[in-house]
Specification:
By secondary structure, the protein is mostly helical. It is 55% helix and 10% strand. It folds into 4 domains: 4-142, Arc Repressor Mutant, subunit A (Orthogonal Bundle), CATH 1.10.10; 155-227; 238-298; 307-365, Arc Repressor Mutant, subunit A (Orthogonal Bundle), CATH 1.10.10.
C-alpha cells in the first residue's frame, strides 16, 4: 500500500494540473465587489507580482489610506468565506499537508518550490500561495530576519520549537567540526537536553526544514549540512571558490576551466573573471603551477618552483646519481610539460652534471 506521502504527492500533482493556485485565488476574488477585489490584488501582488502600499492605492482612487484599509478588511472577511469552498479548500489542505510533512515548519521559498509547478513559480503565483495561506489563519508567519527566511508554522509552538533548536544545531556542528545529516543533528540536539517543553515537536523533518530556511546553514552535499561560515562548503571570495573547485574535482585544472566551474557552481551572484581567478592562482600559496596554465594544490604533494627547481629537488631527495629516465618520470608526475623541456633543463651545466652514460646529479655535488 502506498504511504501517505506518495498519495498526497499524486493528489497534489493532479490538482496542480487541474486548478493552478494563482487562477483559483483570482477566481475567488472575482466573487467580491470589484474594488475589494482590486485592492486585495494590488496590496498582495496578485496581478503582476508587484505589491502596492495603502498610499499608492489610495492616490489612484482619490481616497485616504484608512479608507483603503477598510476596503481591504471588508474584502478579506468575504474572501475567507471562499476558503470553505473548492478548489481553495483542497489547495489549502495540500499546502498544509506539505508543511505538516516538514515537521510543522517550512520556509516560504521551500514551500513554493515544492507546491507550485515550475511553470507557476512566478512572483504573482507565489504571492497567491502566500496570500491564501495567510488569509486562512491556518498558519503562523515568521517574517524574514537576519537569521531566517520567511517561514510558516502550523502553530506558534512549532515556530518556537524551531527557534529553540536552531542555536543547538549550530552548536552541534561546531562541536563536530564537520557536516552532518539531519538525523545525526537531531541525535546531537536531543542529547543536549535543552529543548524543554518543545522537545516533542523537534523531529528529523523539522530539523531538516530549519536547516533549509535558516541563513546560517548550507548543504555540503545531497544529505549533509554545515555552517554557512565554513569556506570549504560555502566559499565567499575568489580564493575560496578556487580552492573549493580544485578540492571538489581532485585533479589539476587549467585556470580557464576553474573559472568556468566557479560560474557553473553559482555560489552567489558575484561576477567572476578569468583574470581574477588567474591572479589568485599566481599569488596564492596553496596553488602550484604545474605547466601550461594548469594548477594543482600544494597539499596534493606537488613541488613548488620551476622545472629546474623540481629536478633539483628530485635529485636532492634521491641523494645519489639518477638515470635520466627516472628523473624524467618523477618530474612528469610533478609538471605537465614535454620531455624535451626536462631534457633542456638537464643540459644546464651550471645546475646539473651528467655522470657516466646517462645519470645526473646536482652540479655542485660533482668533484673535479
Amino acid at each position: 500500500m502506498a504511504d501517505l506521502k506518495t498519495i498526497i504527492q499524486i493528489t497534489q500533482d493532479q490538482l496542480k494540473k487541474q486548478v493552478p493556485t494563482h487562477e483559483a485565488v483570482l477566481a475567488a476574488l472575482d466573487e467580491l465587489r470589484p474594488r475589494e477585489s482590486e485592492v486585495i490584488a494590488r496590496r498582495s501582488g496578485l496581478r503582476d507580482g508587484s505589491v502596492e502600499t495603502l498610499q499608492e492605492i489610495g492616490s489612484g482612487y482619490g481616497v485616504s489610506r484608512e479608507r483603503v484599509r477598510q476596503i481591504e478588511k471588508q474584502g478579506l472577511t468575504k474572501f475567507k468565506d471562499q476558503l470553505k469552498k473548492g478548489p481553495l479548500t483542497d489547495i489549502l489542505r495540500l499546502a498544509m499537508g506539505l508543511i505538516r510533512e516538514a515537521g510543522g515548519v517550512m520556509g516560504q521559498t521551500q514551500l513554493a518550490q515544492e507546491f507550485l509547478p515550475e511553470s507557476q513559480q512566478t512572483p504573482a503565483s507565489i504571492n497567491s500561495m502566500k496570500f491564501l495561506l495567510e488569509a486562512s489563519g491556518e498558519v503562523v508567519l515568521e517574517a524574514e530576519s537576519k537569521e531566517v527566511d520567511a517561514s510558516y508554522g502550523l502553530s506558534k509552538a512549532h515556530l518556537e520549537a524551531a527557534n529553540a533548536a536552531r542555536p543547538l544545531l549550530v552548536s552541534a556542528l561546531k562541536t563536530a567540526k564537520k557536516s552532518l545529516t539531519p538525523a545525526e543533528l537531531l541525535d546531537a540536539v536531543t542529547k543536549q537536553d535543552q529543548l524543554g517543553d518543545h522537545a516533542h515537536l523537534v523531529t528529523e523533518p523539522l530539523v531538516e526544514s530549519v536547516l533549509q530556511y535558516s541563513k546560517g546553514f548550507v548543504m555540503a552535499d545531497a544529505t549533509h549540512y554545515g555552517l554557512a561560515t565554513w569556506s570549504d562548503i560555502n566559499p565567499k571570495n575568489i580564493r575560496e571558490k578556487t580552492l573549493f573547485v580544485l578540492k571538489e574535482t581532485q585533479t589539476p585544472l587549467h585556470f580557464k576551466d576553474i573559472t568556468e566551474k566557479i560560474r557553473e557552481a553559482k555560489f552567489d551572484a558575484k561576477p567572476v573573471t578569468t583574470q581574477a581567478v588567474h591572479n589568485e592562482l599566481i599569488n596564492g600559496d596553496e596553488f602550484v603551477l604545474i605547466g601550461r596554465g594548469i594548477y594543482a594544490l600544494k597539499d596534493w604533494g606537488y613541488l613548488t618552483g620551476t622545472v629546474s627547481d623540481v629536478i633539483k629537488q628530485v635529485l636532492t631527495t634521491s641523494g645519489e646519481p639518477m638515470e635520466r629516465a627516472d628523473v624524467m618520470e618523477k618530474v612528469l608526475k610533478q609538471r605537465h610539460v614535454s620531455e624535451n623541456t626536462i631534457l633542456i633543463n638537464l643540459q644546464d651545466k651550471s645546475k646539473f652534471a651528467r655522470v657516466g652514460k646517462s645519470q645526473y646529479v646536482i652540479a655542485e655535488g660533482v668533484k673535479g
